[in-house]
Amino acid sequence: MRLKPFAESADANAIGNEMHRLIVELYPICRSITGNGVRETLRLIGRYFPLDVREVPTGTAVFDWTIPREWNIRDAYVKNWHGEKVIDFRRSNLHVVSYSAPVRARMPLEELKGHLFSLPERPDWIPYRTSYYNESWGFCMAHHELARLKPGEYEVCIDSTLEPGHLTYGEHFIRGQREEEILISTHVCHPSLANDNLSGIALATFLAVTLEKLQRYYSYRFLFLPGTIGSIAWLFCNRDRLAKIKHGLVLVDVGDQGIFTYKKSRRGDAEIDRAALHVLKHCGKGYRIKEFEPY
Q1: pLDDT 10s digits, 20-65
Q2: What angle is formed at CA 264 by the lines to CA 260 and CA 267, rounded to 5 degrees?
Q3: Which of 161, 13, 145 has the alpha carbon at shortest distance from 78?
């Protein structure tokens, strides 16, 4: 069912509340660069406007990259010799290294520690780690919990699959007076990370909803795709339309309390750079400008 856009008279708080509600829905979903988590995320975004969902098969060559196998996970845990879960994927999907291969084994703590990751400098945080292109497995946990693990035999389970499938992305096109497009991209491959990048997903969604109601000079294309490999796949599959792209923006890390940050295009003096700088100079808030880097 397509949702009605928020009222045109809605103030910033009302819009913010709508965005927050979307983030709350998206937060528990275990996303990665492929899999059902991405599909469910796109399904929820698609309630706000028609979303064209595309799938690129495993093994497809996209420039000098290759679409990997599809990863899905149902459950994961580590139990001690009392049968108590000392790590539980259902408590936080950050506990499992993304793209971990399936595992069912018993092993001593000394062996298990080779597959455990923490941040000693941030003892209360669960780190986020991935293993997209190097098959392995692992768990992430708060360092203070790791330090409490006692020697003994542990049961390890990662109920996941790594099989031929698809990479999935979504796009929404808003026609303007001209065929030239402004491309707005945001990545949908991170799990329960609010700022990176549920904030970008929410902002892109409601920016599209707002633009639908305005008169537009340029056309706009919104992309919701996995980071890096998703962008490469989209570029490869749309080589015939790249000449229509006039400007592009990537929305990421837009939900914290820091100042606005704008990273310049590779040219550094493109029209979009000048426009962004003009807006930031007159926004009445702090900002910083970063030079281009491919990261």
Answers
A1: 999 999 999 999 999 999 999 999 999 999 999 999 999 999 999 9
A2: 170
A3: 145
